[in-house]
Amino acid sequence: MRAALTQATAASPSTVRWIGTCLGLFISIGMVLTVVQDRLARVEAARRQSTAVAIGVDRLLHYEIRNLERALRGMAVEADGYVEDYPERSRWDLPAAIRGVVSRHVELQDIDLYDAEGRAIHHGVGAHERPTHPTYTPGHGGGLGVGRLQQEGHGEPIIPLALRTPEGNWLVARLRTSELQRMLEGLDIGRRGSAGILDWNGVVLARQGISGAYVGREVPLPANLMPGATVQLDMVSRLDGIERFASFTSTSDYPFVVAVGLSKQEAMAPWWRYAVIAGCLLVLYWLGMSYLMRRMSVSEAARRRVHDELRRHADWLTKAQEASHAGVWAMQLGDDHVRASAHAASLFGFAPVAGTLPLAEFFQRMHVLDRQRVEREFEQAQASGQPFRSEYRIVMPDGQCRWISAQGAVIEGEDHKPRMTGTIVDITERMARQEELKRAEIQFRELFDLNPLPFWVFDIESLRFLAVNAAAISRYGYSREEFLGMTILQIRPAGEVEAVLASVNDGAEPREASPVWIHVRRDGTPMHVRVHSSSIVFNGRAARLVLAEDVSDRVAHEKDLAWRAAHDEGTGLLNLRTFVEQLDDPPEPVGNNGIYAVAYVQLRDLAFVSPTFGHRTRDEMISGIARRLAAVAGRHGPLAYVPADAFVAVTRHAADWNELVDELLTAFSEPVESGSGSQRMEAWIGIAFRQAPDQGAEEVVAHASLAALQARAENSRTMHYTDSMADDASQRLAMIDRLRRALPGDEFELFFQPIQRMKDSAVFAVEALLRWRTPSGYVAPDKFIPLSEESGLIVPIGDWVIDKAAQAYQAVAAAGFPGMAIAVNVSAVQFMSGSVPRLLRSVHERYGLPPGSLHVELTESVMLRRPDMARAAMEELQRDGVFISIDDFGTGFSSMTYLRDLPVDCLKIDRSFVRQVHRDARNASICQALIALGRGLGLDIVAEGVEAEEELAWLKRHGVDSVQGFLIARPAPLEELLAWLAAPK
Fold it and tell me: pTM, whole model, 2 decimals?
């Protein structure tokens, strides 16, 4: 305690004053540095923000102008050769192309065509004033030129964008400045910020903010601004006098400059508030520090006066503890600290120094099993004023336990306040002796009574129980008195008396574990046990010690394993293997010389349930169907479940097959209830008969499965097995095997059919058609292509077709037809693999093909499977310059939304609609609708399968762009196609 008092007085006011002053200086310096650093950070943030906003607008402007440039480049070739006065002599329908581009780009006012000298060749669709051909500032990377801002009376200002065509003409698009103004709307530039888009001469094309600049006004640009660079300036605007952090950027390839300025006053306003708050906090700190120093000086004198008295009291208490040789403690009632002697502290594992310690630390040293009890007894003694007595364990720092006997009483202190004082005594040795006695008793109980397995001793002569343990009492349900009044026969079934007596009379030693016996509990429930016994002498009589091991769980587990091996866990029905075994080895004879009928029930559309409603709903629906079919099968024969979507039922009397099928169909007539609601399930049912007594059940089930597959293919609810089905399946497998060898065996070849343009009868493309040549002749495409898609062989075959088409383009170009494209049909399976864009780029690079040399024809099923993936792949193809057609349009179920959003260039009308179109009113209506749809979407229209002059004339009258079919030319090998192209028409 003396050391504690000396330490308590060591912290003098001078020490606190020195620490407080140093801390204040440190805080002040840190605060000033923080304020300065915050100002620099805010300035840098404002500059970066202005630059980020400017670059963002510049990139948006770049993408907008680049898209317009691409649109103009797409028209550039069409523009050349256009004759204003004689449009019919022109190679292209330029007005329609201009209307299509203007309708897709609302930001364009119009598009005009000028010759190299600036004379107008064709004006666009608008009736507005058309200034003379202006001069243009070329882009930084060449290409698209930009003219100066033009005002058309009271109309909206426009900016001319000019692109030179291959023949030297000028295609001029008039960009509305409102599109540039829209790019500046919603920018984060503050109330006093400004943003604008200027041309390379400093003319304001669009503005936002309060800079005072207006569209058409010319402002100076930074002298060091270069194309592709960004310049930052701190400047005072000469238009409105506001100081700003300004950024000028021209990182795009076009002669535009984006200028953004953020008000310095707005950017620095939060910093001024922060600086004022920091100054106020520093002032408050120094005022508080001064007040604390004055108060500490006053209390220092009083503390020194009581110091000597406290030291004398500490010396007296220490001597009293040394004389008594006992731990003494005392505390004020309601206080949370205890004054303990040195010996009392050492008993609890603290340093052997007298002093005041927190009461919680004493309780913390107590054993976790005793702590709550002692705390409760101590609180009760304090509250009632009764003496405190308790024995408990404490845990020493080295992990050892010590027993303590504590006593205490409430007395009145010198200050007339109640306090509790008492002693503590170490009783570890006494408690150790008691613990040894208790441990011996527990070991005895464990050896003779607490064995976890039931065991007993019975008299060999009378068979009466002589002793039983607690486990036997618990497992069998009898009390100890009831057991001792019974014989062992009373826990065995009545029919096993002879077996029990035989086992008792067997004197062989040592006795091995007996087979599994059945014992009966008091409540009559059976229990499977394995008995281990040994002959002993008990109280002078011949007896036998029996240990009974409960193996009921093991027996149940073995039964469960046997059940699981023969059944499906989800439905509880037989699995197919057990089903076949029961049919091959029936438990009872089957009528009609063993002839039976098998129904294979193939569920429809179950694969769509899990993705739509979840696996839980799917399992509930299967279980519901299983319960219905089980009720049907109970009247006919066993029922099996074939994961994941089929059941197999049987009628042991083949004559009842019709009744079985009717009952199965009735089971599917009502909806199936699940957690997701009512769902109607349907199925295809295949029926097969055992045709001979020696025919295996597995073969019969396979025949029924083939019949179900045929029912699915023909969309029929039921189908009987015929031998032709097996032949068809065999031929199908054989054809797939031949397909696998066809590609490496060089059995595939390409035929080509021309596609003729209607307006000039010119052949501008040919379609590559896959043919399979076998020793027995050509195989029809509608037979081997679906098999190729199902087996996955269509992907390598499609890669081969694209490669051969590229070689064919080289041959056609070498023969004098360089502009004739090759159209390739791409399977939906191959297209959805994602390899087509990469493969096309590869063949273009490998064979040096120009853009547009290969066209891709896709079916509508591509859009239905994964529209997002299809859109991404088609956009990638379009960026590579690949012409995309939708083949056999109108025969699928594509959505108009997909057709509107996907980057498609052409629609090919299926030949089923073209046939007899001049006579068939329905086909004519469909063709007219498809032609109008394609025209409305700005797509080219190609009619397939044209075989009659009347069909060709009708298609020409109704605006079809191109045709192909036997009337033009039949598909032929490449050599015959080249000869046909070279021959005079």
Answer: 0.41
Domain 567-721 maps to which CATH number in 1.10.10.10, 3.30.70.270, 2.40.50.100, 3.30.565.10?
A: 3.30.70.270
> DSSP characters for 625-646?
HHHHHHHHHTTTS-EEEETTTE
- HSE, side-chain direction, 13 A CA sphere, residue 324: 18
CATH topology of domain 13-287: Beta-Lactamase (3.30.450)
> Is residue 809 scored above 90 in pLDDT?
yes
pLDDT of res. 213: 56
Name the residue with tokens 């507005």.
128
At 102-124, the pLDDT tens digits run: 788 778 888 888 887 778 887 77
d(CA 650, CA 698): 12
Is residue 444's pLDDT more than 60?
Answer: no
In CATH terms, is domain 326-434 a member of 3.40.50.2020?
no
CB 386 within 8 A of CB 412: no
Handedness of CA 508, 509, 511, 512 (dihedral sign): negative
Please give the structure tokens belonging to residue 716. Answer: 């029929």
What's the pLDDT score for residue 7? 46
Cα dist. 574→118, 226, 599, 921 in Å?
A: 88, 82, 15, 58
In the prediction, which pLDDT does 118 show? 76
CA gap 954, 924 in Å, rounded: 9
pLDDT tens digits for range 195-219:
888 888 888 888 887 655 567 777 7
Classify each residue of 99-131 as buried b or exposed e, where b means 16 or more C-beta atoms within 10 Å of its C-beta: ebbbeebebbbbbbbbeeeeeebbbbeeeeebe
**What is the CATH number that goes with domain 449-552?**
3.30.450.20
Paired sense of beta strands 854-858 and 777-779, if any: unpaired
